[in-house]
Amino acid sequence: MRFLSLLAASALFFAAPALAEETLREQARAQFGAIPLVPPALPYAEASPERLTLGQKLFFDPRLSENQDMSCSTCHNIGMGGVDGRATGHGGQLGGRKVETVLNAAFNASQYWDGRASDLADQVQRSVMVFPAATLRTQGGPIMVTPTQVAATKQHVVDRLKGIPGYVAAFKAAFPAEPEPVTYDNIAKSIAVFEATLITPGAPFDRWLGGDDSAMTEDARQGLALFIGKGCAGCHSGVNFGGAGYAKFGAVQSPGADLLPTDDAGRFTITHVVQDKFVFKIPGLRNVELTAPYFHSDRVADLRQAIAVMGETQLGQKLSTEEIVKIEAFLTALTGKQPEVVLPILPPRSAR
Amino acid sequence: MRFLSLLAASALFFAAPALAEETLREQARAQFGAIPLVPPALPYAEASPERLTLGQKLFFDPRLSENQDMSCSTCHNIGMGGVDGRATGHGGQLGGRKVETVLNAAFNASQYWDGRASDLADQVQRSVMVFPAATLRTQGGPIMVTPTQVAATKQHVVDRLKGIPGYVAAFKAAFPAEPEPVTYDNIAKSIAVFEATLITPGAPFDRWLGGDDSAMTEDARQGLALFIGKGCAGCHSGVNFGGAGYAKFGAVQSPGADLLPTDDAGRFTITHVVQDKFVFKIPGLRNVELTAPYFHSDRVADLRQAIAVMGETQLGQKLSTEEIVKIEAFLTALTGKQPEVVLPILPPRSAR
Q1: In terms of CA atoms, which chain A residue is nearest residue B349?
Q2: Are B39 and B47 contacting, i.e. CB atoms less than 8 angstroms apart?
Q3: Whole-model pTM?
């Protein structure tokens, strides 16, 4: 009997952490989710191999910008976590917002820091590249461009692509039912189809969520428990750990004008609703260790510092160094397998 | 007997073009050469898998420029024939020279239009990217940069890479015998090793040269005969159909200030020898259909027009439309298999 009860006790002793792990996993499954292994279908842009091939070429083609000096990949660098790693206000120019990552962007409910685009195709439509790279970068998109300029630029790009026989054939193959397939709408749809493939499955967290206990370190697991327990997951939830809603930067305590420049009122500039002043999209945290510097204002290079700032401004809590280190360990477990993309060979323009 | 002599006559009848083809092939073998299937060894930069991997990352990394806004691939776009397809004098800024292709550049005897760099590693050393992209582009390299600025920029780049743990490890693996391997010299060597892999074998001409009669069209074969017969091959010879020597642009007849702006004296700016005024490197013609616009001055978008200009300015001959079309057919037979490069995932910087 004594032997049996000892057995039972030791079983309990070993079962307790296992039970805690299962509880944490169930909580995590309810609040987050793993990146799927295959690209998601986009209701606004039906995929086909031809559209994917076309979208991949367009994504890398600098001829899509007015000055032919930048492509989507200039700012959304797939090799750098889907961003450009640069701080705003570069070269003495102020203003602008941090580039958002293109990786897993298909899982976001809206695009841009102010949520002004509903989906990826809409984002392409709005990211019309009128200025030379350096200028556009500080505008955070075509904010300063008049509708006439936008229309003219789109027409220039469409006309330019129409002069490239390889593209004319590629658009015909991608949109076979359309008599005039080279349109800005179809540019946007094709790029969206390609961008939807830029997902990063297989992160340690995802493997742990799938049942692989050894995929996350003990620090990362404790960091996850803190991430949920402290309230971070209140905003940063879903497959992307964010990307689905909006929050005021400084919900509890203002981060100050350095991190929250007063000349950028965030979502208010789109909705003109007073409650939206300094409200921004909650960014996704997948691959966050690769996407420094942080916040829409780009001012924080250190992930630990960013965690501390979030604790204070959004939750009104001063996190301890130990807590910050563990949450960081968890956040780095959100880094998935980066997309393997073959650089496309772009069709040459024809002189005739 | 009559039957036999008829056979002999018809054999002669069919043998004549075959003989002509063999003669042309022998001439071509003597004057040109096929792109090898494997990258050439560089005497100044020994290759290893680790150096190749490192060089590939560096080639695509915008953090190699002072402003972190351009990489080697910004101007030397592997998907666009190794160039950027842009004309100089863009955005109202004058001056500058056309980007030279990185494809098959390892086979050139010198680099830059004025030949100022002896090899690929030297070219990387001299292409220090100090300015924002738009400015650098019009400078045609660091001509306007003082030696002090160059040294400071190189040191910035080296210091930046030293702050990226993934690069420190990659340099150690690539240069295992060196205690401090993160140097600008090693950056240049690694990029040169990668660039040497950017070759385009398998062009129709190369396959024809190897004995495949059907690889080139009849027009292209006649174009090749014209290319040799008219004298083009006098300068455009060797594996790269150029890249080995220098010539005055306007050897026989000046192309005029539009194609030969008087403020760019070419090789004279390097040698200060009067005979080198308006002398430029003879560009290679591999993949020339992909690298428009043409000439160092970038002013001619049409390959046929470029052929006509060359005939007049270098050979003093007005080529007929038929001759031009055939030479163009031959030149497009120099387009090889473009390099298939997987976009490298770049190591993230560390905040600590």
Answers
A1: A290
A2: yes
A3: 0.88
